[in-house]
Amino acid sequence: MSAVREGLPEGRYGRSADERADRKLKVVGSVLGVVLLGVVGWIGWDYVAGQSVSAEVIKFQVVSDAEVKVHLEVRKESSVTGVCTLSSQDKEHNEVGRADYTFAQPESRVDEMVSLKTTGRATMIELVGCQPATGSH
Fold it and tell me: Starting from the edge strand earliest in sequence, which strands make up the sheet with 82-89, in order?
């Protein structure tokens, strides 16, 4: 086929210009893909590294109309005092209890059962969030 193309205007019957354009698009697409992955990775790392205190509700038990026992697993730096906020709601999704709990243990992982006092029968527990205590770290 190269013999057929000889002497013909470039790009009119051949694909050399198209091939160059495709190559440029592939390079630009690859570079943009790598940059996007880098940005997503950086945002993810910043989010994870920026949270020095986190927790998870393992389970909860409604003890009465006025109390809920909550099993929390708290992860933090061992030198940090963490504060976690719990909220409880009733079946109509009205808040019936809210409290802050402080975790000053020198461990990086703390499993603890806490008691949340409520003004009505709770049906749901929400971990509102955790953060280092002011003056901690």
Answer: 95-103, 82-89, 124-132
Q: How many CB atoms lie within 10 A of CB 88?
A: 26
CA distance 74 to 103: 8
Exposure string (b/e) for 49-80, b if CB count within 10 Å is 16 or more? eeebbbbeeeebeeeeeebbebebebbbeeeb
Q: pLDDT tens digits, the chain, 137 residues: what are they? A: 445 555 555 555 556 777 888 888 888 889 888 889 888 887 776 665 655 899 999 999 999 999 999 999 999 998 899 999 999 999 999 999 999 999 999 999 999 999 999 999 999 999 999 999 886 55
Architecture of domain 53-132: Sandwich (2.60)
| pTM passes above 0.85 | no
Q: Strand (E) positions, the chain?
A: 53-64, 67-76, 82-89, 95-103, 109-117, 124-132
Domain boundaries in the chain? 2-50, 53-132
